[in-house]
Write a structure and sequence with these properties.
This protein has 402 residues and is of the alpha/beta class. It has two domains: 198 residues, Rossmann fold (3-Layer(aba) Sandwich), CATH 3.40.50.11720; 161 residues, Glycogen Phosphorylase B (Rossmann fold). 45% of the residues lie in helices and 15% in strands. The protein has 18 helices and 14 strands. The protein has a seven-stranded parallel β-sheet, with helices on both faces. Helix 11 links the parallel strand 8 and strand 9. It is elongated, with a radius of gyration of 24 Å. The mean pLDDT is 93.
């Protein structure tokens, strides 16, 4: 019934759907691919497909896709996304790994059948929360292993889905396995009717990273407050907090790393007195450094004591806090963290990071970390522990495929 209705609606509004897709910035080729026409691709005995709807999901599965390529060298690897930005990041990060990168099909029987008939996947791994009635039903019908990996359901979505448990229970039973980021997410899927025998906790793929090798020396000259990946409008907020903290803590140093180096002059005009990392200057002789080099930020976290993660006091949606947490450094972010909401939920629950709403809260949180040594040590240990607790997800998925 679902298939009949969705197919009828799709055919009825096809011209309008095409116009709306173009207005949303999708090319004709993207629309054609979403209809299941994917061009040249020759499947072999085993085709492993990964789906990440957009940027966050592709970032999460990047390492898994690359490790799958190593572990299953004779298999074909297919990566699908649902958005333009997802396609861009998939081609950028996985273009040399995947045999095919294309769009996920519209969830109608004809589009799904066309797609599956061409790709012929043996295993499909859907990142986070992707529940498509027709796609799941067709995979079940054709005996394709279909998994949700890194599974999560927000509280808001869960409340909506729970009212429709009668609808979602049979859909979830189409999955060969559902593997969640947390115990809480596991319980949510079970409450919606997922099979308890095949629904398990796998932890979060985003935590399966290793710290970069530190291949240089760095003189701190004191404790360091690092403002990482800042955007326009944030520099003033962070710098004002630093100046107030500096009045209390004379040893405190400040590093600011703008997200885009094209903003360097803007940052310089705000800071006024500073040294540049590119000149080889040291914090031993300066209080403030602007990180104006490429590719060093991930390593500079190792020398920070507190890290503010930018893109969070505007509408950017935040940046990855794990680059700091992996070194045991407490992180503070503003309220805009949509891009890494799941990560922040985990590190906040663990006591390894803080999300603040105002510049006053930013100052107070940093002040507490600098003034209370026991509190700082507890937070730093929480950073290390949360990684230990969350890692292992990548090996879990590889073992499932094996």
């Amino acid at each position: 019934m679902i298939g009949f209705v969705s197919e009828a609606i799709f055919r009825l509004i096809y011209p309008l759907f095409l116009i709306l897709h173009k207005k949303a910035g999708y090319s004709d080729e993207a629309f054609i691919q979403k209809c299941g026409y994917i061009g040249n691709f020759e499947p072999n005995e085993r085709v492993i497909m990964f789906h990440g709807v957009s940027v966050g999901e592709i970032n999460a599965i990047e390492k898994l896709v690359k490790e799958t390529r190593k572990a299953f060298a004779d298999s074909k690897i297919v990566v699908t996304t649902g958005t333009n930005t997802g396609q861009e990041i998939a081609h950028k990060k996985l273009g040399e790994t995947a045999d095919l990168i294309t769009y996920f099909p519209f969830d109608t029987p004809s589009c799904v059948e066309r797609f599956l008939g061409k790709v012929k996947p043996t295993d499909i791994l859907m990142a986070e929360t992707e529940i498509w009635p027709n796609f799941g039903g067709k995979c079940n019908k054709h005996g394709i292993n279909l998994y949700i990996i890194n599974g999560r359901i927000s509280d808001r979505t869960f409340r909506s889905y729970k009212k429709l448990k009668f609808f979602f229970k049979p859909l979830l039973r189409n999955y060969t396995g559902i593997f969640t980021q947390s115990r809480e997410d596991l319980n949510k899927f079970l409450a919606l009717g997922a099979n308890p025998e095949t629904t398990k906790r796998m932890n979060n793929l985003k935590f399966d990273i290793t710290p970069p090798e530190i291949d240089f020396e760095f003189e701190k000259g004191g404790r360091v407050f690092l403002a990482a990946s800042t955007h326009s409008g944030e520099d003033e907020i962070i710098f004002d907090a630093y100046k107030k903290l500096k009045e209390k803590y004379q040893d405190l140093k400040f590093i600011i790393a703008p997200r885009h180096l094209t903003r360097l002059d803007e940052v310089k005009s705000i800071i006024k007195t500073y040294c540049l990392r590119s000149t080889g200057a040291s914090l031993a002789d300066n209080d403030i450094m602007i990180l104006d080099t490429m590719g060093e930020l991930g390593k500079i976290f190792a020398f920070a004591d507190i890290a503010f993660i930018g893109g969070s006091f505007n509408k950017t949606g935040g940046h990855n806090p794990l680059e700091a947490v992996i070194f045991g450094k407490p992180v503070i972010s503003g309220p805009s963290i949509n891009n890494f909401k799941d990560i922040y939920a985990i590190i906040q629950n663990a006591g390894a990071g803080f999300v603040v709403k105002t510049k006053e809260e930013l100052f107070n949180t940093a002040d507490k970390l600098l003034s209370d040594e026991t509190f700082y040590q507890k937070t730093s240990e929480a950073c290390i522990n949360v990684f230990k607790e969350q890692q292992g997800a990548l090996d879990f998925v590889l073992n499932v495929l094996k």
